């Protein structure tokens, strides 16, 4: 299925570029995560036990809804832009109508640094949503949560920026456990990297 067909299958509308987004130095423009990359990742990689999936910078909610559809697990999308947050909520409602039931999907309207990490949150997804400065703060928050409630935690990076990788490799206890080079891509950044602390 292509992007539009996948959206139609899930009864959501997430295709398209950003609009009306504030020009902020530390936050990057909205771009939906390609379904093909997600399909490739989850054909090769297994989530940890009892996963609760957090998408940092979820845009219109594509990834949390896709993950819920595929694995039937709790998912949370964190989004700072009010317009995208409303669209994500609308997409959730449409998806639930299609299923004929409620889904354990929630969206939080806040900046990623202010998201209060819950003791069960253990999979964090990033599609290059913001600068390395904010990424460091979010990872620090995840680490503090780990110290308070030790559990297996995974960090998934889609199209990982070099500075994200350098920070995780050299500035944190997280270790690279899985790497997926996307099909039909030649750029070394066209990949997914999974880091974990166990």
UniProtKB/TrEMBL annotation:
Keywords: Methyltransferase, Transferase
GO molecular function, one term: methyltransferase activity
Gene Ontology biological-process annotations: methylation
InterPro entries on file: SAM-dependent_MTases_sf
Keyword Transferase: yes
Protein name: Class I SAM-dependent methyltransferase
